[in-house]
Amino acid sequence: MVLTACLLALVFMWTVSSSPGMAAKSVSPPCDQHMFDSDVDNCLSEFNNSMDTSSYRDSCPWPTVKHIYNQLKFCVDDLAKVSWCKSQTFLEDKVFLGVHQTYFSLCGQVQDPPLTTLIMLITPAIIFTLSLPLLCIHLTT
Question: Would you list the DSSP string of 52-66?
Answer without folding.
Answer: TTS-TTTS--HHHHH
